[in-house]
Design a protein that fits this description.
This protein is mostly helical. It is 76% helix and 4% strand. A two-stranded antiparallel sheet has the order 1-2.
């Protein structure tokens, strides 16, 4: 009963988003066919949407980085240290698999556009950057020489051609070094967790900052989203050159996202569960039906925690203590198929297709910040916004992602609940086997 108000509130916010999108579509169609709009006039009805996106961009970094520090710093390595390591390893490897699958699905479905994009872009010289320089840039950004300039400057090697001779020069460019900031936040969180009680005041500072920015984000989403989203959708319809082509791209994006996400519960998770536990995954996942229904209403794996735990312990007969520990850690970690595919889509639509080096860097960043972004408002969309800023990708086409975020968030939540359940099933099974093996060794000696 206690979860009912939260569920109803979530449904109201979802209906508001849907209404905003429909209002934006209606206004956009009307304004487009009214015709005769000048650039100066378009600015007026695009202003609320642009302000909304600027507010989201402004709060993205202060929201994600303190949350990452507080999430990692709150982990107690002395309590269930072995289980903690297994949880972090499981989600880290799984996220890399998910991201790789998402990339393959994206290029399989969007292969024609991707090839045309690479042919038409002027960044051909950038793609010829040798592996040594690409790794050099990656490591230099991972370890910024001045952490206080990392929010504004990023190291980049630029190829230049002089008298048919290609040379490479490294310099700092005006782009946020997200990789360095994430590395610094992760290192700080690990250090806080290691120091323990003596660093509690620092941990409290970052926890409070995370709470404050989350509340600010909730206010922005609650009060600015309806008008801002309607403005963004209407502006896109008015200014787009070919509406049918744009709608086709959006449809292909949704199909790509669904394919990339649903590969996880349909193939990857059952295969992992079957391989490690030697048990029937269909029966195991079938017992999670109640948790999946609740998650569809709340769109939050954290809110679904009690129901998920009950399904695991009462229906799947998992150990309550170990299940509670694994699940309490697992719900704090995101899965990264949605952000990975969304970044590739936005980059392609903006004519800024990512290079192999940029894709690798994106995978590294998404895998790292997945440990701390769960629970923040619009967590997947905010991650996409952050990574687009890192690569200097314009955020105009993020309107498409935001318009279907409510639907993709529920698909993502469906996958997240089953991922958490698989983590509990796999880790608790392995833990029981390890404990039995240790007891057997103790009896022998």
């Amino acid at each position: 009963a206690g979860a009912m108000p939260s569920c109803l509130a979530t449904q109201v916010s979802t209906l508001v988003v849907l209404f905003s999108i429909l209002a934006g579509v209606a206004a956009g169609v009307f304004l487009r066919y009214a015709g005769g709009w000048t650039q100066e006039q378009i600015i007026w009805f695009s202003l609320p949407g642009e302000l909304f996106m600027r507010l989201l961009t402004c709060l993205s970094m202060p929201l994600v980085l303190p949350k990452l520090v507080s999430a990692i710093g709150s982990m107690d390595p002395t309590t269930g240290g072995r289980i903690l390591f297994k949880v972090l390893l499981f989600y880290g490897i799984l996220n890399i698999i998910i991201e790789t699958t998402g990339i393959l699905v994206f290029f399989a479905i969007n292969s024609t556009e991707a090839i045309e994009e690479k042919t038409n872009t002027t960044g051909a010289i950038e793609t010829s950057l040798p592996l040594s320089y690409a790794v050099h840039d990656l490591l230099f950004n991972l370890v910024p020489e001045n952490i206080f300039t990392a929010p504004f400057l990023r190291y980049q090697t630029v190829p230049t051609e002089t008298n048919n001779t290609l040379s490479y020069h490294g310099n700092h460019v005006e782009h946020t070094n997200i990789l360095g900031l994430v590395a610094a936040a992760t290192a700080l969180g690990v250090t806080i967790a290691h120091v323990g009680e003596e660093a509690s005041s620092i941990l409290q500072f970052f926890t409070s900052m995370s709470l404050l920015t989350s509340l600010m984000m909730e206010v922005v989403i609650k009060w600015m989203c309806p008008l801002g989203l309607a403005s963004l959708v209407a502006t896109q319809i008015v200014t787009v050159k070919d509406p049918s082509k744009s709608l086709g791209h959006l449809t292909k994006f949704v199909v790509t996202m669904l394919a990339g996400n649903l590969l996880l519960p349909l193939f990857i998770l059952p295969l992992i569960y079957l391989t490690i536990t030697q048990s029937n995954p269909v029966k195991f996942f079938g017992q999670m039906g109640e948790a999946l229904l609740v998650n569809f209403g709340t769109a939050s794996s954290i809110s679904t925690f009690p129901v998920t735990l009950r399904c695991l312990t009462e229906k799947n007969k998992m150990d309550h203590k170990e299940s509670s520990l694994v699940l309490s850690l697992g719900v704090l970690i995101n899965i990264c198929s949605y952000p990975m595919i969304a970044v590739l889509y936005v980059a392609e639509q903006e004519g800024r297709g990512l290079t192999t080096t940029q894709i690798m860097m994106t995978m590294l960043i998404l895998t790292t910040i997945a440990y701390g972004t769960s629970g923040i408002p619009q967590d997947s969309f905010m991650t996409v916004l952050l990574v687009c800023g890192m690569h200097g990708i314009p955020t105009t086409m993020l309107t498409h992602v935001l318009a279907v975020d409510w639907m993709l968030d529920r698909v993502d939540g469906f996958c997240k609940v089953l991922t958490d359940a698989t983590a509990v099933g796999v880790i608790c099974t392995r833990e029981a086997e390890d404990t039995a093996g240790e007891e057997g060794d103790g009896i022998m000696f």
